[in-house]
């Protein structure tokens, strides 16, 4: 089946290259490669990757024009992301590209630029149990997911997460150590859909779990829907015909009657 | 100081009348009396009570006309509340009266009638710790409340709570047994503000805690703001001058020009 | 192509049966028949109709169980709709059936029961121009619709429409006589999606317009999405396996440790 | 009465300094001076001004620390606003300062930085009638305002305004030439409240109208509420004690039991 949803997985790809580290053990080719391999195995999805060290961080205008939904994993390298690339990605989201921000991407420049807040939170590395409660069982993102996802050991992310009130909270997490977190949230900016999903610390094999991968696949289809259908309808760059976001003089005078 | 916010606390008043029970021990005169006594001690608040067994459940047209915010505590007596009284309360909320629904009031007729859903949830009586995380520290309802409220032993209420997406989630609760709950939520219906706050099981002395009472006092001021200021401005029933919610023919033809 | 979205169009069917009237001229077999004929012509949709005068208003448990999205057109017959049927439809929406409420259906019992407000508005029959501005060009409901829809002559519906803040406003209408109206709005209640769309007075051939029909087809797919995919996955009634909205005791004790 | 709400009115102050121009005729000392004079005449408000040409645009750390709500009027000078000052203002809003953005401020850097979108719109200078419909008659911002405000001649601002779905739409405008506009919208970012209000083109005496000034006064109280009460409670800078928005390690281990 020909791919009809184009996914690009971006990763700073720093942790996983440190020899002997847990991240390398879990994701020998990087988190991006693991996710892209999964997406490519799904009918209707064509996946590629991009990383910090590539020219333009791998996010050239051509790559983005061919992307319906961009996944973003970053952590210690946020400051190394070029502001010009952040602006470019932001423009594409506003014009209709989907964006899925993962885990520590809560502090990525692109997330803060689109949400407007600092997106700070509480955290703790205590190897504790997390339970994600599905509070939107009818949402496309939770298709095939039951009422909860249990992760035996994970890093804690806790409220208050400094985000604007989400359009919809999809998951709320419970942590063994006493915290809660809005672990799945949707937003819209311009014509683009955004999903934030917090599971995915680099020292846990979270992205090998079928349930987590199912959420991410659902999220790809949901966030990329507008771009993918526009691509299908136009046969090309889903955002090339977009007038974009410009101030526009409107000549409308529908009644055409002289001022009385 | 003359009272300028009129609070009515409604309680089904069933549990607390059972001799030898825990509720009677904790609230010898009923939950309503405990709450009203607190509110009456606050500057600017005039409080009264109403209960299920009174004529018209104590919620006559006169009482409601003199009420800026109504607190509602019900549990085993939901079905005994007269539908005509529910309609009357609903009309007042739509016209601008505030409503604060407490704990098991999540299943009260009035709450379901205003929200449109069944408001079901998970629950468990296991005497467990609850932590309410304050995720809206700038909201008037959390004035003077820190980042969390800890309740050592309480009944569990858990998601999925079948409510529409709230206007704003104020508190999210963590329960020792693995559940989470949106324990403080705001809604608007018509001109009325609604706050749902889940702490308050009848077998725990929750409503004797200063922090919980502070939340409720804040909520009274927030939910009753429109009604109280309208009362102050009109010197009488804040909703008597209200055209109310009626279909209305609009004569506007602002340009006054003949159809071209 | 086999139908995979089941649409039921409900109409009170009163105006169009009055001999010599404009509605009969425009919709000789009723608004429901006109809409159902259109839907049936669309790939993937199977449409049926139901009207007020049929037993149970045509909305038996069997019909609803086989419906993914219900369209509702009512006006002078709102009071004649049986409360038991309203409760049945409401239950289905809460369990995941889509609902599209048309024009004067703003005052239908089912709409008020789900939204919680009275849904009153301003109106005027002055045969005036309406322009619907599309403010959500990326939403599935506006697929294929440009930046505005112009209706040369229509009844005016104006603000303030007494509805809760919508999840999303899709269209805002301008009327020649000086009014504005949120003419396309989305809501969610329980697991069900709701779309209100105001065009469609019975004396204008609104539902024969390709652009309006395109909006309604889009709305059918959007509102019925959850039900239709659940039907496809289960091969039967999309809501039969639904635990439904019930209070449920939760046994979770994930850590299983003795109270310290 | 001692001032207890500190308002700062910022204006680029360009149009009004052009000799012989309409803006100078209407606002001889600038829009900021006209607004500040009005605010200063209101009980409980202390107002000051700041303009583009002052050092640090008049928005020093000291001025902002002493500001509960900042009004922003800009148009042709958006690009001349220093990015460092924009970041400073943004930090204050996230920490709880109110912000009211006026008219052409829709394209100001600070508004785009907080909302995340480009905030583009349609416009037309055709000297046409505008009617603002009040769709939130219970909101503090519309206190004392009737169901509509009529402006006989104004510049047109029309949809689609590229903003995220507002928390609440307060006013929707009708324009003689066929357009509509969400002319009053509320947002929250961090702990700060934001109100966008579109009336106020520099060639019309909009800010001399009592009804418009009433809206702005109401908006000042609404947006500055958190900062003003915090100032009153702390007796100083309402945001100095603010931990601010930082990632924070949380030591909570409430049950203190060994991992089972």
Provide a descriptive summary of the structure in words:
- The structure is a homotetramer of 260-residue chains.
- Chain A is α/β, with parallel strands linked by helices and 260 residues long.
- Chain A contains six helices and ten strands, in the order βααβαβαβαβββββαβ.
- In chain A, strands 2-1-3-4-9-8-7-5-6 form a nine-stranded mixed sheet.
- In chain A, helix 4 links the parallel strand 3 and strand 4.
- In chain A, helix 4 crosses helix 5.
- The N and C termini of chain A lie far apart (63 Å).
- Chains in contact: A-B, A-C, A-D, B-C, B-D, C-D.
- At the A-D interface, helix 5, strand 5, strand 8 and strand 10 of A face helix 5, strand 5, strand 8 and strand 10 of D.
Classify the beta-strand content of chain A into a percent band: 25-35%
Mean residue pLDDT of chain A? 93
**Gyration radius of chain A, in Å:** 19 Å
Question: Which of globular, elongated, flat, extended, rod-shaped describes the shape of chain A?
Answer: globular
Major sheet attributes of chain A? 9 strands, mixed
Helix content of chain A: 10-25%
SSE run of chain A: EHHEHEHEHEEEEEHE
Using a beta-carbon cutoff below 8 angstroms, give the protein chain pair with the largest interface and the number of residues from each chain. A-D, 39 and 39 residues
Q: Which strands sit side by side, in order, in the main sheet of chain A?
A: 2-1-3-4-9-8-7-5-6
Derived structural class of chain A: alpha/beta
Low-confidence spans of chain A: 256-260
Number of helices of chain A: 6
DSSP strand count of chain A: 10
Oligomer: homotetramer
End-to-end Cα distance of chain A: 63 Å
């Amino acid at each position: 089946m020909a791919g009809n949803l184009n996914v690009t997985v971006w990763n700073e790809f720093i942790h996983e290259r440190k020899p002997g580290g847990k991240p390398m053990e879990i994701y020998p080719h990087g988190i991006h490669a693991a996710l892209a391999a999964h997406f490519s195995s799904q009918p209707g999805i064509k996946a590629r990757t991009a990383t910090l060290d590539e020219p333009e961080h791998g996010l050239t205008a051509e790559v983005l024009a061919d992307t319906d939904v961009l996944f973003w994993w970053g952590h210690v390298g946020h400051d190394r992301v070029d502001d010009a690339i952040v602006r470019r990605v932001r423009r594409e989201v506003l014009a209709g590209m989907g964006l899925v921000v993962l885990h520590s991407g809560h502090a990525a420049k692109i997330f803060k630029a689109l949400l407007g807040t600092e997106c700070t939170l509480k955290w703790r590395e205590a190897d504790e149990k997390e339970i994600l409660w599905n509070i939107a069982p009818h949402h496309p993102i939770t298709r095939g997911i039951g009422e909860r996802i249990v992760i035996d050991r994970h890093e804690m992310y806790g409220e208050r997460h400094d985000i604007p009130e989400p359009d919809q909270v999809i998951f709320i997490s419970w942590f063994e150590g006493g915290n809660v977190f809005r672990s799945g949230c949707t937003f819209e900016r311009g014509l683009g859909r955004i999903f934030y999903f917090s599971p995915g610390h680099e020292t846990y094999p979270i992205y090998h779990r079928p349930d987590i991968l199912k959420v991410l696949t659902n999220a790809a289809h949901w966030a990329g829907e507008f771009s993918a259908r526009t691509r299908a309808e136009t046969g090309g760059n889903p955002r090339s015909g977009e007038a974009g976001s410009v101030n526009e003089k409107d000549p409308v005078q529908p009644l055409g009657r002289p001022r009385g």
